[in-house]
Each structure stands twice: as C-alpha cells, then as structure tokens.
Write a structure and sequence with these properties.
The chain has one domain. The termini are far apart. 0% of the residues lie in helices and 58% in strands. By secondary structure, it is mostly beta strands. The chain has a four-stranded antiparallel barrel with strand order 1-2-3-4. It has strands spanning 2-6, 12-20, 26-30, 33-39. β2 (12-20) and β3 form a beta hairpin. It has no helices and four strands.
C-alpha cells in the first residue's frame, strides 16, 4: 500500500509500507531506502 509519512515539519516521503513500530510510526520503502516517520492523514472535505 502506498502511504505518505512525515519525517519532519516540512519533509514528507511517499512509498510502499513495509512495517510499523510500536510507537505508531510507519516504515516505507522508496527504491532501496527505508524511511520511518508518522503517517500523514488524508485530506477531508
């Protein structure tokens, strides 16, 4: 599943979910790199 995570206040990454941590962070893979951050909620109208 493709998800967006926030790495900081101005940096986000979108990639394939490969796991999660106990503190609620998601791990996403982009090419050969794995990033860990908090999931970004979707836009709601």
């Amino acid at each position: 599943m493709l998800r967006t995570i926030a790495l900081g206040s101005c940096v986000s990454v979108q990639g394939i979910v490969v796991g999660s941590t106990q503190d609620g962070k998601l791990m996403v893979r982009v090419d050969d790199k794995t990033f860990v951050g908090y999931p970004v909620s979707g836009a709601r109208n």
